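Title: Comparing notes on inverse folding

I've been comparing how different people in this forum approach sequence design from structure. To keep things fair, I'm posting one structure and asking everyone to reply with a full sequence. Here's the target:
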């Protein structure tokens, strides 16, 4: 599994989305957490009134009497339960499906609309804003957007991020999506980089893109992703080529160590046709179902293969004259 060189941009996070530990560099100041105003400015655009511990506890001592006198006449800070209820109302309005177990008031926008980080009983947490209209951004997507932005500019301000320990759960959440899509590898890295699209890194194997498809999930292996001109961040070219081993198993091409591949098109049976060039020996045209299984193979050495999309191009084809070079 390939380790991205941009990992250093994410401080103590060891890979693209090791959500198992809080990201210290992304800490957001919260009115009821005692975190610093400096961290609030560093983490995004949300700002809020700083709430001192003495104000929450209703106690006065030599260190906070003056601050408490200044706070008299102002509304009391909301309780954790009030924050939870406010966040739940937003989550319900936005149909997030989140059952809020706890929420932190991060601050206020514009006209005093509250912004909350919500922890959900299951699935990803959210940043919820009581703006008009209200908005919700899931924590996994926010981190992914920040990661992608840092790829382009390591110094960019990625805005507000989720910091609650319970919201550092992307590995668990996205692994669940991948399993529903039929992925069985040992997942060691995950990243959300588009709406409802995630990249999965597998330990020593070809990775996947996982997409939401209606109420279901589907997985596209990185060997196909790279053929179509995109890239997988957590899969090496060698791992992608090795992904063909599963596809070609139990076929005439099972011994082929794929050196190069190209996608040709889709046949009348909705099987995707590829050409694979082998490190040694003959190449093949391969008809693949659901990126998983080769249903039919055609050896490049068979002259009849030329009738299929003009045959092999990566491997010289027996009995077919080479096209003369243009003068």
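Reply #1:
Here's my take.
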């Amino acid at each position: 599994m390939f380790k991205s060189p941009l990992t250093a941009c994410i401080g103590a996070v060891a890979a693209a989305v090791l959500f198992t530990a809080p990201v210290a560099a992304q800490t957001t100041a919260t009115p009821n957490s005692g975190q610093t105003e400096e961290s609030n400015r560093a983490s995004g655009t949300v700002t809020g009134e700083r709430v001192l511990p003495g104000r929450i506890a209703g106690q006065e001592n030599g260190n906070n009497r003056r601050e408490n006198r200044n706070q008299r006449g102002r509304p009391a800070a909301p309780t954790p339960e009030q924050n939870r209820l406010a966040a739940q109302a937003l989550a319900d309005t936005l149909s997030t499906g989140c059952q809020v177990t706890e929420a932190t008031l991060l601050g206020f926008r514009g006209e005093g609309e509250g912004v909350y980080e919500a922890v959900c009983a299951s699935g990803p947490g959210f940043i919820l804003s009581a703006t008009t209209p209200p908005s919700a951004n899931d924590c996994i997507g926010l981190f992914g957007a920040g990661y992608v932005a840092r790829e382009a500019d390591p110094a960019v301000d990625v805005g507000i991020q989720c910091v609650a320990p319970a919201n550092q759960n992307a590995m668990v959440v996205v692994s669940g999506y991948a399993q529903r899509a039929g992925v069985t590898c040992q997942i060691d890295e995950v990243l959300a980089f588009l709406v409802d699209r995630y990249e999965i890194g597998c330990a020593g194997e070809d990775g996947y893109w996982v997409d939401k498809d209606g109420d279901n999930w589907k997985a596209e292996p990185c060997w196909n992703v790279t053929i179509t001109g995109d890239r997988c961040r957590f899969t090496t070219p060698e791992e992608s080529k090795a992904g063909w081993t599963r596809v070609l198993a139990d076929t005439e091409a099972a011994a082929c160590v794929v050196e190069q591949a190209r996608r040709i098109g889709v046949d009348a049976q909705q099987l995707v046709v590829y050409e694979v060039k082998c490190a040694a020996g003959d190449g093949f045209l391969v008809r693949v179902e659901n990126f998983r299984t080769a249903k039919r193979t055609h050896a490049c050495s068979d002259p009849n293969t030329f009738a299929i999309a003009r045959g092999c191009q990566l491997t010289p084809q027996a009995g077919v004259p080479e096209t003369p070079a243009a003068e």
